[in-house]
């Protein structure tokens, strides 16, 4: 069945791959990112394959912008009942060097953003009696040096997910989290640059720790999101699926 989905942070990386995948699954997709112009490639890729998509510029940490973005998608594509909270940023630093701004910015985009988007979209989901929410967590939720802010946000996404599952289940809405390991995107390229390591060298070092012997790509994550958004996943809710090429501990 065709639905309307919203994917945040969908101009590039995992969000762009997820938007394309959900469109291929038959959904109309609201492609939300900070800059609507940056969403053009994702929208073009979807429409070139016969899908429907709308570029929407919004900062997911801004309540008014979120309200306007969800309304724009509802007006243009129909009531959104699938939501993927994917927008994210890094402000890595060791604790003693981490500023309040580093902390607030990361918690603001990931956690406040997911809260605001979920609160806005659930109104449409409850009305429809059906919905899917997928939140992007991370293996960093288990703790990662230099990422006190990001790890806290990504662990928070798991608690948010479980609570959304409990509150919204009776309305036919499931909420699950996908927690990627190492995925090759601009985000991990920026991490390599910050560490002063070439990206190929960085990938090689990461892959040496991954049981399946390769790095992840955005489509690996999009496939997991697609499953959680499907009709057949209706009895799976409040779960965290690690997409990391091996077990996590
Ligand atoms: P990415 O390539 O950096 O893409 C993130 C997108 O989110 C960018 O287009 C960015 O826009 C957008 N964004 C940032 N702040 C926003 C805001 N306030 N409102 C709306 N959009 C915003 O990242 P990615 O690697 O695809 O990661 C996607 C998600 O997966 C993130 O939540 C990340 O934490 C998670 N994740 C990634 C990995 C990995 O290895 N890559 C692993 C685990 C989890 P700008 O370009 O304008 O900043």
Automatic annotation (TrEMBL):
Pfam families: adh_short_C2. PROSITE patterns: ADH_SHORT. Residues 3-181 form the Ketoreductase domain. The keyword NADP applies. Gene3D superfamilies: NAD(P)-binding Rossmann-like Domain. Keywords: NADP, Oxidoreductase. The keyword Oxidoreductase applies. One of its GO terms (molecular function) is oxidoreductase activity. One of its GO terms (biological process) is monocarboxylic acid metabolic process. SUPFAM superfamilies: NAD(P)-binding Rossmann-fold domains. Belongs to the short-chain dehydrogenases/reductases (SDR) family. PANTHER family: 3-OXOACYL-(ACYL-CARRIER-PROTEIN) REDUCTASE, 3-OXOACYL-[ACYL-CARRIER-PROTEIN] REDUCTASE FABG. This is SDR family oxidoreductase. It comes from Microbacterium caowuchunii. The lineage of its organism: Bacteria, Bacillati, Actinomycetota, Actinomycetes, Micrococcales.
